[in-house]
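Reopening closed ticket. The problem is back. First fold of the pair:
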Amino acid sequence: MRKLLLILSLISIINLNAQELNCELVINAEQTGNENLQIFKTLQRQLKEFVNNTKWTGKKFLQQERIDCSMFINILEQDNDKFKATIQVLSSRPVFNSSYNTPVYNFNDKDFDFQYLEYQNLNYSPTQYQSNLVSVIAFHVYMILGLDADTFSLNGGDKYYDQARAIVGYSQLESSKGWEPPKGGDQTRSQLINNIMSKTYKEFRSVMYQYHRNALDIMHEDQKKAKERIANSVDQFFTMNNRRPNSFILRVFFDAKAEEIQEIFSNGPSVNISQFVGNLNRIAPLHASKWRTIKF
């Protein structure tokens, strides 16, 4: 009996101290022509441990509360300790009372150049630049945390976005690509965090909350009401789009959500969404082929 209690206590301690993320991290180096080099395997292992074992917040996460996410790093070029790469970051969160995980973050970061020596220590500081490798990974970690929090409470991600902006601030001083203020159609990390925190795009965070907490999370109770609420929440983007047409932050949202919206409104109880589909075609024309398949 004592052994059982000890085991249960240990499990409880482990669960209380679980880190925030459950991240699958993959390195693909095929384009270098040397994908079997040990350094790529070491980098993948170190980064996976860095993301999953670092304590990113002061909050205690239970094992089942860890955020599912993935980072796919595509190495384009390698020259000794210098690497040119891209990173695709995705995250999701469970929908209440279902086995479904809804996509939350889907970002393709095309400016990911870094230096790395095999087995070098990867340490994160919230106030001090360590390396571009650490800064880029940490920035996306805080974006994952912020967006996830926004889906559970209105503006719940503030403290995580503040840290993401701090990372942008000290990383810009190193003149690495991807941190600079955008020029023309650039889609930089600084543009992403500035858009999310700007009042110009205030509807974005409202939609993130209304769409997930007030709509998807009641899908198990009333599918029709949930679909109507999803349509009403996304319709807020029509106002934002009138203010700033074809904004970067809108593209970020629909990169994650377009396929899900298409599937939701092509199944289940029908609702009157003719205006909704019209708005979708105006605010997200790049996904028009998906909107054409919606049945109503």
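Second fold of the pair, where the issue appears:
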Amino acid sequence: MVTKTRKTNRKEELRDLILDAALKVFVEEGLEHLSIRRIADMISYSATTIYLYFNDKNHLLFELCELGFLRMAEINNNLSSIQNPLERLHRMGENYITFGMEHPAYYDLMFNQAAPMERLATMDNSEWDSGDKALAQLKEIIVECIEQGMIRKGDIDVIAMAIWGTVHGLISLRVCKRFDKLVDASEVLQTMHRSLEWLIQSVDITEK
């Protein structure tokens, strides 16, 4: 039993080592330089060894994407203590933007790159638990806001997409250094709050 446990631990350690190396290349050198061979050279293992853990580069990127969602979920743990759902919605937006600014490589991989979705499409179970959980959390907050009369009643999916698209657009502009074309980059959180207020109050989203 001890031997089996040690083998399992070594496998997990090597898997983590591979993912750490992949993230380092992705962050420091860019997606175009990420390859199985490059990672193998970094960790002094053969490419064949890495293929025992990951099918291809897209598989690696998908797993890094999953780690990103775990990190973002940890940041959102502070939402449970907020009773007011509208305040919770705004805090979720703050968390999303803060995560994107602090972890731009993860953010780009999670929300902009096609590779994780290409990997997902090839999996036997193509349900995306991490992405679905993040979206479900947003929709639950929206439902609470509607029930308490804080957001106009409407199509939950459309409302969620409108809110997500607004916040995603802001952080994407900030990460790509386009934000200061309209406002100072330091005001991204304040702009997010104002944008959500305007969206919630002004947009007529027809219910199904």
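Update: turned out to be a display glitch only; the data is intact. Residues 2-29 form the longest helix (28 residues). The chain has a mean pLDDT of 87. Please close again.
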